[in-house]
Amino acid sequence: VPSELRAGKDEVAVRLKRARWLGPGPVRRLRVEHGRVQLDTRVRDGCLSYEVGLSEGGSLDAAVRRVGRDLLASPNVWLWRPERRARDARATLRLHLPPQVRALVPWPARSDGVRILDAEAFRFDSYAAFGRFTTVETTEGDVRIEAARLDGALAIDDAALLRWLRSAIGAASQSASGLPHKQLSALVVPSGEGTTPVPFGMVARGGAASVLLLVGASAREDELVRDWVLPHELSHLLLPFVEREHAWLSEGLATYYQELVRARAGLVSERDTWQHIRDALTSAASESTDASVVRESARMHLTRSYTRVYWGGAAYWLGVDVALRTHSAGHASLDDVLAALRAEGALHDVWRARELIARLDALTGTTIFASAWAEAEARAFPAYEATLAQLGVRAEAGRVQLDDGAPLAELRRALIAPRR
Ligand SMILES: [Zn+2]
Fold first, then answer.
1. Pairing of strands 70-73, 129-131
2. Which of 34, 132, 274, 358 would be a feasible disulfide site paired with 393, CB 3.0-4.6 Å?
3. Within 10 Å of residue 19's Cβ, how many Cβ atoms?
4. Which DSSP letter does residue 109 get?
5. What DSSP designation does 31 have?
């Protein structure tokens, strides 16, 4: 028996109402310190109960929110776990719910409905919901999809919802070795009338992939299929989890790939892709500040300079991808080196940014990643104009024309050539 059980996030400690030992031996109240349930380690096996309050509130990764008659409740809020765990610790979960109440939890189910939680189910965040919704299932390639649309009005029906999810997963699989997670749960939250089809999305990787998507009431299927948010969220899964201070790396990668994978899947044309990349880079670079994107990243949530950090990061990855491909005469690419990194088991850990970059350099036998970081740090925004010019992305009065005579025009086409 572990000495302590605790919530997924410290802020959640106050939600614990009580904890009881149910046996062996007499039922008794368990001691709780700062939301941590204290256990007797001399006992070999046992059973306990605890009760948590699910009132609304909490940060994004430990959120409880009412959605009409349904409830979003992150497992961080209700799933207590041992403080110290073996690296390969696993658990099983069986849910007993009131009649008509359903759950969408991210973890894979055995045939008897019991869920399997691997060590990453506790290492990383995840999303879950309870309510009177129905869940729908499908597959795309080798990825199993389970989705629930929570209470509220949406223009799309379940069939259109599944087609959208499958299309985005198909697109995000347009990277070397495909999507690393073979199970995805999607929580679709109707968000009322808005200006964009998907006003917000978030992905987590605890035990499987789970994604939370706010969807506009009037969003049409064709708008959702072309939208960037879900491809962006899924592209996060291509890179290991990086310390949050260096969000420019993870957000930059997801921003870069949201463009590549939609173009590779044919959802957006080659010209429109480069038009969008150029417009977004130009706009992000023009936001005046003297801090580099690397420095801005650490304080992004205070300054709200999200666009600059996301697209500054995207400029970094575009630069290293082009440098890698040029350096290797087309034999190496960012796709391949990320696939090699994942093949080493890198997704199991939280990485420090510098270590990740050093590993990418080691895998490619270059210093491309570290040099580009040093350059990004030395300027207000990573250089991208010369790269676009070499790729043959030229703008006249703001409108992009693709120049097939440019020195790297072939490389430009290779970037968005379908992968599989
Ligand atoms: Zn993101």
1. antiparallel
2. 274
3. 21
4. B
5. P
Q: What is the mean pLDDT of residues 359-369?
A: 98
380 exposure class (CB count in 10 Å sphere: 0-12, 13-18, 19+): middle
Q: Please give the distance, rounded to the nearest whole angstrom, from the Cα atom of residue 370 to the centre of ligand 1.
A: 22
Per-residue pLDDT tens over the stretch 46-68: 999 999 999 999 888 888 999 99
What is the radius of gyration, based on Cα positions, of the chain?
23
Per residue in 67-103, pLDDT (tens digit) is 999 999 999 999 999 988 888 889 999 999 999 999 9
Task: Determine the distance separating the centroid of ligand 1 and the alpha carbon of 251, expressed in angstroms.
Answer: 5
Q: Which of 71, 55, 254 is nearest to 151 (CA)?
A: 71
Return d(Cα 94, Cα 152) in angstroms, integer.
28
Ion ligand 1 residues within 5 Å by Cβ: 251, 254
Locus of tokens 């990855």: 317
User: How far is ligand 1, taken at its centre, from the CA of residue 359, in Å?
Assistant: 22
Cα 300 to averaged position of ligand 1 atoms, centre (Å): 13
Q: How far is the CA of 231 from the centre of ligand 1 (A)?
A: 10
User: What is the distance in A from the centroid of ligand 1 to the CA of 122?
Assistant: 21
Whether 402 contacts 393, CB under 8 Å: yes
The per-residue pLDDT for 420 is 61
